[in-house]
Amino acid sequence: MSMEIEAADAASPAQISTIISLAHQQARLAHEVSVAEEELRKKKEALKHCSEISLPNALRDANLEACPLKDGWTVKLKTILAGNISEANKEAAHQWLEDHGMGGLIKHTIQITFGRDEDTFFKKFLRDLGKRKNPVKAERKDAVNTNTLGATIREQVAKAQAEGRDPREAIPFDLFGVYQLTYAELVPPKAKKTQL
What we know:
By secondary structure, the chain is α+β, with helices and mostly antiparallel strands. It has five helices and five strands, in the order H-E-E-H-E-H-E-H-H-E. It has two domains: 12-64; 65-108 and 139-189, no CATH class. 45% of the residues lie in helices and 18% in strands. Strand 1 (66-68) and strand 2 (74-82) form a beta hairpin. The chain is flat and about 80 Å long.
C-alpha cells in the first residue's frame, strides 16, 4: 500500500514519518482483522461439520455411542432437543412466547438510517428520541437466539416430564421447529481426588 502525506508547515519530518508508519500499521491491522474474521468463520463452520456430522457418523459407522481416547478423554454421542423458528411461524411463535410469559426471549432490534446530508436531523433525533416529531425510516427485527430457544425447549420438556405431562403439551413442537440434534461431545478425564 502506498501512502503519501502532504507536507504540513508545522509538522517535523520525524512527526510525518511517525504518521506514515502508524497509517501503514493501521491498514495492515485492519487487513489482518478482516482475514482473521474470515478464518474464524471458516473454522466455526468446520467445527460444526465435524461435531455434528463427521464424528457422529464415524461413531455410528463403528456402532459406538462412545469411544475412549488417550489421556482419559472420551468422545460420545449426545442428543438434545433444539429448535428453529421458521419465518412462516415467526409471528405465531413470538405470540405464543408472549402469551406464556416468555416474551423476554424475543430480542428486538431497530435500525435507523440517516443520509449524509441529515446530520442536523440526526443530532436533533438523538435529543428528541422520545418525541419522534420527524418521520424516520426504521427497520425492526425481532428474533429469538437459537441457543436460548433450545435451552428453553429442553427446560419446558423436562418440566413437563417431571409433572408426568406430554412434552408437546408444554411447548408446540411444530411451531418452534423442535428437532433432535445429535453431536459429538468431547468429555475430559475426571479429576482425581487427592487425599489430605
